[in-house]
Amino acid sequence: MASASMKEELTCSVCLNIYTDPVSLKCGHSFCWECIENVRKAQLGSSSLTCPECREEVQELPSLQKNVSLSNISKHFLSAQQERKTADIFCTYCIHSSVAAVKSCLLCEASLCEDHLKVHSKSADHILIEPITSTVNRKCSTHEKVLMYYCTKDATCVCFSCGLAGEHKGHQIESLTEASKKKKESLKQHLGHLTSKRQEMKRSLETLKDLKTDMSEKAACLKDKITTVFRDVRRQLDLIEKKVVCEISSQEERASLSVSDLIGQLEIKKDELSREIHHLEELCRMTDPLSLLQAGSSSSSTGEISDKSEKMDILQAIKGFDEGLIAATLYKGLAEIVTSIKRRSYIPVDPHIFLDVETAANSLDVSVDLRFASCVVQNNLPETPTRFQSPQVLCTKGFSTGQHYWEVETGKTGTYRLGVAYATIERQGQTSFIGNNKNSWSFRRFKNKYSIHYDNRSVMITHIPSSQTIAIYLDYEAGHLSFYDLSDPIIHIHTVKTTFTKPVYPAFLICEDCWLRILN
What we know:
By secondary structure, the protein is α+β, with helices and mostly antiparallel strands. It folds into four domains: 2-83, 2-Layer Sandwich (Herpes Virus-1); 103-176, Double Stranded RNA Binding Domain; 181-321; 340-518, Sandwich (Jelly Rolls), CATH 2.60.120. The chain is built from ten helices and 23 strands. A hairpin with a 6-residue loop joins strand 3 and strand 4. The model is unreliable at 339-344 (pLDDT under 50).
């Protein structure tokens, strides 16, 4: 345990190896000289150096000074590790005492101490290697000769006879040293890939953890805002306050569980990568070519990280609170308790949403209070460039910033579209229908089937609203347009995600046998 702890303290967080010529930054973190030089080169366009460990910025690029003490500790640690590996192998010829071996001879099949190594034959046939306990796996099982070559076709170590006249005749044969060098390069590349992947996972974990904290802060903020709505209201409104706060808490809990699941999955993958990286590090530190080649290859079983666009979609899906649903729950509760209380909220209900008769088609009848519209045979309104030829109408007020909420009551039958549009929307033809172009977005009912329309696309909605009142929530900066069925409980129908570039106006399409009313 102590050795493992020491190794962790002496490991560079960039290359994940024991420090080589370590240097320390002002923040106190240390790295291999070559590693921090590569980091500095990658940050050439910056006026400061960012620590890869704590992300602290050093305003003045430091002159790197070798940490002599840490370098000596690292060297002693590596030396002690090597000594522990060979301490249990003793000289074959020291029969009266146990003397540690420093080399093993494959020809003699014996291990030698320092003294016996001095008098040992220097012939090329006597191949000396690091001390080993047995030479059985280093000799050809067919010819009983030392394995000195590597067959690239069969990926196996062979002796001279196998490569010359045996089953590997005609195959590409390499020396163990050459083959080992190639394998080590391949392992280093794989190690680099896994290291990069683990660093990316680490960043993803940090992002998710920050997101979880942000959601908690957002939830707390929403709770405070909701609480202010009820500050000056009688005790009878406490029930509605609890209901809204409970909805926020439920959303927070669901989102938090989702993030916790993702964090758990990434933690597991990170641990798998750490184990595989540790195994590859051990292989890379092997000095014996044959042992390295016979150790086998390793391939990552960890799933690939999703591409950036997919990750961003996931983060955006988790990040948002359904404030439209929260607002709808609040407003419905207030209306049921006391209609005389003025609605107050962090998303104010705009009382000044009126139908614009200058845009209303001749086939629509607009009420005097400019909140009710129905389909008629024909009006005698003058034709103007702003008037729709299709049975549609815009509202007088547009929104170019902020969050907005309004409710629309509709007839039980007939066809309608509810949504928003730019003032530049076309005024005639089917391409002018809200949702059938790039200038509008709508929720549609047609023959008791429901769908979302925008940019010449449609999304079928399986939910059939049980209420005649539809709530619409607009978050201009976020680019969200949400629709809610004001049933009990309130149901979120769909949210369109886009980018608004101009002021948007509430817009409606009303066909025969249908009507709608903007609720105050």
